[in-house]
Design the sequence.
């Protein structure tokens, strides 16, 4: 699973190869901690994670602050090497594979061939989350495929690459607002929206403070547990009656607290999807 792509191929990168036992949830924790110290690109594989950092941002002691490496419940080994500048794009393209969901939707990069599916989405992720490879994004795409978006208003909160907003637009949503607090995600989503020809999508940089009194028929939020717990009351205020909230970014054990927060705010649970302990859930207002 490719999580991010660097914004440029002009820099020299250091590649770390981490071998992890057991793989989950250690790989997700490792990626989060590495991101905090400057790593900007990650590729998950069958036995661990490849992590990339620009050479100019690297230092000998960069892993000292990575707490998961010291956790007694996980066995993690690592090695690193310098990636020659001219090999970076080829390395990333080799690891980023297109995906298909239900043979109806494909998510691919611009260098992949067009796929014969109903919804062919072209994403260049750069430093943004949302290629469809991660379980949470894939399950949210599945929910969108299974729902009728004809003439609906949609909010994609924490939009990353914009892939969820793009599929909603392709499924005939009237208009879609895509919001992310990260500048890279904001810029990347704008590029991907234009690349896929979705003029009904408006992309904004910010958080729930932007919502004001806007109303939506559907809200998509693939973020994380703590942000969801904080913002669900805001989402509900911005949902039309009988509106739907699709959420993901948390584990199966988090479902009781997510559902409790939704119930407190008048939302009724309808359905879960689950893959490798990750969960996506549907709630109706």
Sequence:
């Amino acid at each position: 699973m490719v999580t991010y792509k660097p914004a440029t191929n002009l820099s020299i990168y250091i590649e770390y190869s981490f071998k992890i036992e057991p793989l989950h949830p250690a790989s997700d924790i490792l990626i989060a901690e590495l991101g905090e110290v400057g790593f900007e690109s990650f590729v998950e594989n069958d036995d661990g994670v490849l992590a990339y950092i620009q050479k100019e941002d690297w230092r000998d002691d960069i892993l000292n602050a990575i707490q998961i490496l010291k956790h007694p419940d996980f066995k993690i080994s690592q090695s690193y090497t310098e990636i020659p500048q001219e090999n970076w794009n080829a390395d990333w393209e080799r690891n980023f594979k297109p995906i298909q969901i239900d043979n109806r939707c494909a998510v691919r990069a611009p260098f992949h061939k067009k796929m014969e599916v109903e919804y062919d989405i072209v994403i260049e992720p750069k430093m943004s989350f949302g290629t469809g490879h991660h379980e949470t994004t894939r399950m949210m795409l599945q929910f969108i495929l299974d729902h009728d978006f004809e003439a609906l208003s949609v909010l994609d909160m924490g939009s990353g690459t914009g892939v969820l907003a793009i599929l909603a637009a392709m499924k005939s949503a009237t208009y879609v607002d895509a919001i992310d607090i990260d500048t890279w995600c904001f810029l990347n989503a704008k590029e991907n929206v234009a690349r896929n020809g979705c003029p009904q999508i408006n992309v904004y940089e910010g958080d729930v403070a932007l919502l004001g009194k806007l109303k939506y028929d559907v809200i998509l939020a693939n973020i994380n547990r703590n942000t969801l717990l904080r913002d669900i009351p805001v989402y509900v205020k911005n949902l039309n009656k009988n509106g739907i909230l699709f959420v993901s970014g948390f584990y199966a054990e988090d479902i009781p607290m997510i559902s409790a927060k939704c119930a407190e705010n008048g939302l009724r649970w309808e359905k879960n999807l689950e893959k490798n302990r990750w969960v996506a859930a549907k709630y109706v207002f």
Remarks:
- The radius of gyration is 19 Å.
- The chain has two domains: 13-93, 128-284.
- Residues 1-9 have pLDDT under 50 and may be disordered.
- Residues 245 and 267 are 8 Å apart (CA to CA).
